[in-house]
Predict the 3D structure of the following.
Amino acid sequence: MTKSNFTRRGVMKTGAIAGAGLATPIIFTGASWAQESGYLNAPQGDTVTLGFNVPQSGPYADEGADQLRAYELAVEHLNGEGDGGMLSTFSSKVLDGTGILGKKVQYVTGDTQTKSDAARASARSMIEKDGAIMITGGSSSGVAVAVQALCQEAGVIFMAGLTHANDTTGKDKKANGFRHFFNSYMSGAALAPILAAQYGTDRKAYHLTADYNWGYTTEEAIRSSTEAQGWETVNTVLTPLTQTDFSSYIAPVLQSDADILVLNHYGGNMVNSLTNAVQFGLRDRMVNGKQFEIVVPLYSELMARGAGQNIAGILGSQNWDWKLENQLGDKYIGTNAFVQSFGTKYGFPPSQAAHTGYVQALLYADAVTRAGSFNPCAVVEALEGYEFDGLGNGPTLYRAEDHQCFKDVVVVRGKENPENEFDLVEIVEVTPVDQVTYAPDHPQFAGGSLGTCNPGA
Amino acid sequence: MEAIILQILNGLDKGSAYALIALGLTLIFGTLGVVNFAHGALFMLGAFCAVTFSRLIQMSHTVVDETRTDFLGNPLQVDVPYIYDFFGQAAGDVLIDWAVPLSILMAIPVMILIGVIMERGLIRHFYKRPHADQILVTFGLAIVLQEVIKYFYGANPIPTPAPDAFLGSFDFGLMLGFDAGGIVYPYWRLIYFLFAAVIIAGVFAFLQFTTFGMVVRAGMADRETVTLLGIDIDKRFTIMFGIAAAVAGLAGVMYTPINSPNYHMGMDFLVLSFVVVVVGGMGSLPGAVLAGFLLGIIEAFASMAEVLAILPGINQIIIYLVAIVVLLTRPRGLMGRKGVMEE
Amino acid sequence: MGILEVKNVGKRFGGLKALSDVNLSVKEGSVHAIIGPNGAGKSTLLNCLVGKLIPDTGSVSFEGQSVLGRKPHEINQMGISRVFQTPEIFGDLTVMENMMIPCLAKRDGAFSISAYGAMMDDREIVERAEHMLEDMRMIDKRHMHAASMSRGDKRRLEIAMCLAQEPRLLLLDEPTAGMARADTNNTIDLLKEIKSTRPITICIIEHDMHVVFSLAERITVLAQGTPLVEDTPDRIKGHPKVREAYLGESSGH
Amino acid sequence: MTDQTSNAGAVRPKPAAPAEKTGLFGLRGKDASLLVFVALLTLLAPFILNPFPTGSAMAQFNAGYPDLMQRFVIFGIFAIGFNILFGLTGYLSFGHAAFLGVGSYAGIWSMKLLTLNVIPSIVVSVIVAGLFSLIVGWISLRRSGIYFSILTLAFAMMSYALAYSVLTPITGGETGLQLQYFDPRILDGELAAGTTPRANLFGLEMGTSYELRFGSWLFTFNAGYYIAAACMLAAFYLAIRIFRSPFGMMLRAVKSNQQRLNYTGISPKPYTLAAFVISGMYAGLAGGLLVAMDTQVGAERMFWTASGEVVLMTILGGAGTLIGPVLGAGFIKYMENIVSTINKSTLEGWFAFMPDGLADFFVTIVYPFVGKGWHLTLGLLFMAVVIFLPGGLVQGGQKIATVLRRDRKGSGLEPGAAAKRKQAED
């Protein structure tokens, strides 16, 4: 590849400042610039631009807003403003509050609209127009996979935001993409033993699954890990993404002999299906002499808020929770530091979407600093197989084979009597990392290949 | 058998929402000839009347509780609703608990007012404009209303529960000769169905038995003649728009305990309600109601696991499939009148 | 054998008998009027002739060929043109364009996709349309937006459009309904002129006796869905049955 | 300039004066100058869309980067095609995004199975979208008015729902389809493992760009954009020919009076079906170009909001005019891509010159309308355009042109009357 495939505005921006006043037109081909720096959008001058691509319209707009808050906080901390947040607890100490490699961090924002097309358009605008060297954010797997592929093609780093489907680091994994968030398999592996302990091993589960990729991988993960615990899956029904009233899917559950309902739903789907399930009195049912229970594999604070009191007593898994360090001690150091600086700035505790975004931004900055270069290939090398601690999840590994983070998974339950709208879940247990680790060639993740890192030149 | 009865109940319940929205949409189509893409937004505004009302009566002042701390370790600030101060905690709790039904009292005047303002301020200037312009302006309005709500209430769904008295389900099992627990159905959904039936009956009775209604019906059939008779049909149409807005708004208010309202719930319903109206037949009120219930019931049956096992994915497309079949076999929908919106 | 032969045509709408046992023969080259009181079935009969309605019984044939079961545009292509009660023209188009469409239909048939060449480069069609407009003394209005013309001009344009197709039978459905006396007379003159300059058969449905008696060579009187009598204008005037069924009733006009 | 804009949208029949010559590519004077005008606009777009120096506060409003320029012309094609159906025949399809989506899927499968060259992929897109629109059109055109709209909507929503769920093996479902180095691609050589497949035109990759720096201005010339722009010009040229052709006149006749058309011996159905298929093929072309420029397809591009978007583009620009749909498409895409990226720190940058309190005040006032509030601005502008410019943006341009001309000549038509006449002619 000798031709560049993206323009490098970052180069030009500073080039333009240097050449301001020059009236002679100079024609550059993309290739000549690429050879100079060796990679796309090399930051020139004293700033570096990051792209925060989050949903700002559509159903996940609030989650995106929370992510954006965390990114802004991360930029502050990287630039040495504010209280420094997790920089003080992070196991790597190379970040010193002087930006990244001495360059002040700037950022641009865009709206993914939770549509893969719009997300790619927004990411391309950041790369082509604003000269962003790294893209991060997002609140769904469809968007994450689409933007990750784009970043691979373009030659910048993608630090995924909230994406839970196996595919992101499974069949659609890419060398330039990294995911800190946990995934469907981990949810299943973390939940199954606790479900067995709480509800017994002799259970019959009925799955309602959102009819798209994330739903499929989550259903598969939960099924296989609960069946391994001795559960029986009596039925699985796919529900359309656009469904708002789930009554006609819930009612048949009453007719079956299932005593567990697993809702493989996220966002609005989950809020509505859970609300409907509780309306139909499923929580009060006794089946086969056992109390009927509902399980929501992937929890989020915002969804819990949307579902209100219906969430009480429902088990699910999370990537992180702001109460981790307070309740489970020093292993999860970093949590309080982050909550403290986020809470002070915004007045409420951060969500897990905010946390993963903040951590991803820090990890990227750290990798660049350790590598001593913004070159995506150097960053990839620095992140692959990197072990770190102090970012709120305990000791964590960025696995080289699939660019997935491995760390403890938090199992939570909706609080019976929440004190306020930010304190809706309680931590039940933390499943240790080795229980959720899987082989890189696990069948649920088969079919893809990282390829080679692309520096865009 | 129980499963089928349950799905019929579900269908009637879904159908109630469809029918109520479609009814309002048809009133506007029929009386004013306006394609109102903002009708979904009216439904959404109704739902947010309930949210606003419950927030209003929960308006509170903060009291610092030194004995407890918040998540950052500062003294906890506890919110105390004003309503406790006025009525005492017990009565206050009852009022808060009954916020959704009570908010109807607020929603009716508010929605009528919104409808009248919309008609007077905007829609009436578009009666003579092409349908394309009507679509553009009402769609723009829908976006604006939606974004205003998003600005104030956020994008996340807001839980708005029904009064505690209506939590839980009604057991039809014994009543219909099945086992106890065989057919249980949530109280609030039954109420929603009854409520929809009352509203629909009310609108029909109003059009059928009042002079006002008769004039409006005549106006729907032949606007020019009625105007020639010297009746100020415009004024009546304004009121009709207000009523249609109120119907949509009430459908929204009562829907909030079924699904937590969010700012784009109107758009979710918009396309579906257009399909319902057209399947029912343009300009036909009974058609809209019939189509609403019909599509609700068909949708409920299509989502049964037994059906999905034979036809995977049928639940994704059933409404549209039925719409196509109906429109191809009956050119003007189930009960459409000739010449309405056919050009 | 006439150019248009209607035999035993009957049509019901539900329980209502609109036409029964209608027999009619229009002689080639004649002006034939169909009159009758409101609800006599004149419009139904006309719609049966042009393919808008299909009669329940009987047959309709034009130049020996049956028109039954054919679509309106096919019947038109056989050589029957229709003028409507309210002028049906292309209101959004200019007069010239209105004129060009029947010229195209005449030359290219019911469907021909020529999406590339410019309309105005088609000399043949342009000339034919201009010629027709000159003939009808409308050439000065050719850039006018058709909808903005007067009622009389619209009627003239509609008739011109029908004639551009060189039909052998022209059906007119109350062509002067709602017109002022002057416009009515103009239309009568126009039709007389057409009759005298072209080999065409005209079949006219009319309410206005003045029009009928100025133009028609033969008159069929329709009452309650059946032809009462068919004869020359002079004899119709004095016919007792007609007076009873029609003229007596219409004396209030 | 004013002359060109004033004629921009008029579908004006010319007197058949023999003196008038046909000019450029067989177009008459005003159409030819319109084509030249549009060609210049697209050719010089990298300059026109980047009026602000990089690094300046106003650089936020620059739209001259490849992705957005490509989107302008691609959605321009989509809207031009939609306008052939809606603007000429008056049939309002609410499901046109389905053809764009189907075209995109066909295009990417061509790149997966045949070759990375964009030409076969675009051809396949157009053909497949054409066939699909033939089926949908043949069924939907049995009804007219809103019944037709709902039929097309139903087909599009079924396509979307199935593509997102049941058809995941073919469409990639939620995550969409992307190219892989291990795709078969029978016409191309095998790619090395791990490399990224890129769409190209006989070796020229779509992402290739050349940059021109002029002082502190920067202009980007992107190969993909110029290929898409060439397609748009061809599409636009063809649209002019169709508008002026006997076929185009028949389509306008369909809109005007189907009754009369029937009784003029012409059957409207084949004409509308032909228009439907042509506009479906335009949508397929747009879909094919979308994957050529950005090798990924997501099912959302078939959702009803995407169909609604092209309706809005056309009405916003001016339905039935030639240039209107292109303007509408540019307008909406600009809002979506530029206004949505203005965040609080950008705003603070703009108002930094003011005293603190005042700056905060302005940031607070403006903030709800930009960034995550871009939809609000869009909605308000929809309403403003339709209220104040009933014929869309084109009519707005014409009004301005009329006022200017009257000022210059001191005479001329009343703007209202001119507008009315224009509307009548459109």
